[in-house]
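Working notes for the structural subgroup meeting. M.R. asked for a predicted model of this chain before we commit to crystallization trials. I am recording the input and output together here so anyone reviewing the notebook later can reproduce the run.

Input as submitted:
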Amino acid sequence: MLNQDILKGKWKQIKGEAQKKWGKLTDDDLEQIDGDREIFLGKLQENYGVAREEAEDMLDDFERDQVS
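Returned structure, recorded in token form:
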């Protein structure tokens, strides 16, 4: 899992990957997220209708993909 500082620092590089993976995230969503994990989780819950735990699993998988 990426820590908050790394996610924030790499956000500009990985937000395109996030939009590819989650097409329901709008440009506005991505701007609001701006590398903030809590906001990211909220947007996943809101746009995909999933519980927080599932959103965390989705984000954890995405972060692992970005590191490897």
